[in-house]
Design a protein that fits this description.
Helix 2 packs antiparallel against helix 5. The protein is mostly helical and about 130 residues long. The chain is built from 5 helices and no strands. The chain starts with a helix and ends with a helix.
Length: about 130
């Protein structure tokens, strides 16, 4: 731990120090994905999970119908449906990755805000 981190931690109350430590821990990708369910955009996240599962099911259904199709028109139609569902799943995943990154940036910003507030309080006490 650096001298700067010790100074910040000493300036914080016990509850703020626990929050400071919690914000400093990095999350693995699975924790990051589930943290989107507690963000302010949780309804979009839940909708994304549901839509993602539905698109995977739709893609699997389209592939099975593609394999059973007898005419060229049906083959092309079911292939287009499967491709569209797979692309939709990709877009949903990209959105989730951006949301996970946003959550990580917010944690880092809150940690910096706490550091600035603690250092400002420490300088005000010294003056």
């Amino acid at each position: 731990m650096s001298h700067h981190q010790d100074t910040v931690r000493n300036a914080l109350s016990a509850e703020d120090a626990r929050l400071y430590d919690a914000l400093g821990r990095s999350q693995n990708p699975l924790q990051g994905a589930f943290s989107t369910l507690t963000s302010e955009h949780r309804l979009f996240a839940i909708g994304g999970w549901v839509l993602g599962v539905a698109m995977v099911a739709g893609a699997l259904y389209s592939v099975t119908r593609f394999m059973e199709a007898e005419t060229t028109r049906a083959v092309v139609g079911w292939a287009a449906c499967a491709l569209g569902a797979v692309v939709a799943v990709g877009f949903i995943k990209i959105w989730f990755f951006m949301e996970i990154q946003t959550q990580a940036l917010l944690r880092a910003t809150k940690r910096v805000e706490m550091q600035v507030a603690a250092l400002a309080a420490g300088r005000a006490d010294a003056a």
